[in-house]
Amino acid sequence: MGCPLGHKSANNADNFHSSSSQMHETKANYRELEEGIHRDFKDDMSYGDYLNLEKILSAQQPLSDQHDEMLFIVIHQASELWLKLAGHELTCAIDNIKSGDFGHAFKVISRVKQILNQLTQSWNILATLTPVDYLKFRDALGHSSGFQSYGYRKIEFLLGNKNADLLEVHKANPAVYSELNQLLHAPSLYDVSIKVLHQKGLIDDESVLARDVSQPYQSHQAVLQAWINVYQDADEHFELYELAEKLVDIEDSFQQWRFKHMYTVQRIIGNKAGTGGSSGVEFLKKSLDISFFPELFELRTHL
């Protein structure tokens, strides 16, 4: 029975305080929308418009009804975006070194290193795909394979791993084939770096600069000696010394990406042949023996 004088009973008081407390907690765990935040995008560009998210987020089209195929698609599409950025930055780095803008070259090369680290990390996510679950949709891939990635091929050509035979898989796409063919015949990041060594008087062998840049790079004694001289007098040649270490950073990160790729494939499909027709893991292992900047690693033995 309620109090005739209107006083709340103990129970009613408790309920009142409990309700007030809940209201307070709800308010405390709530962020009000500020008045200045723009809300009407009928005639204005939104975040989604700027990033073209409607097209990007509708690009995931699984060919099976298997849950994990979405993981497979997203990982590879995201990787292609990172590769696109890496190609953009490496192209800039080459132009920077040609023009002598080493400061900006170092900045974008450092960015490429972090992009490669990000790509390496992505294999840990894909490794959550078990062999049994992958086999449920692998046949839907047909002959499509990461080996056909022109973003990856572009990175390899920009860094100096040239191989004309690699263009064959891109002939069906004339625009891509043309771009890669141009890169095949253009100086790589290492080629322009070696040219700087020559300009600084550290290489006097003209044959080093006369080589066919569309061919795989071969270690050269004159280049090795030039880099040894840079490292032995790093204070005098600090800009070149820093450039060399930035290049080593890229190869280090790239090799980690290659290894993690190989190991993830081995974990998921063992020694099965690749969907693109390669021997699979054995073919991937061979890439670990390819160096973009061989003299920069050999010189360490001679210091």
TrEMBL record:
InterPro entries for the chain: Trp/Indoleamine_2_3_dOase-like, Trp_2-3-dOase_bac, Trp_2_3_dOase
Cofactor detail note: Binds 1 heme group per subunit.
NCBIfam families: trp_2_3_diox
Binding of substrate, residues: 72-76, 134, 138, 275
Pathway(s) of this molecule: Amino-acid degradation; L-tryptophan degradation via kynurenine pathway; L-kynurenine from L-tryptophan: step 1/2
Record GO terms (molecular function): L-tryptophan 2,3-dioxygenase activity
UniProt protein name: Tryptophan 2,3-dioxygenase
Reaction(s) this enzyme catalyzes, per UniProt: L-tryptophan + O2 = N-formyl-L-kynurenine
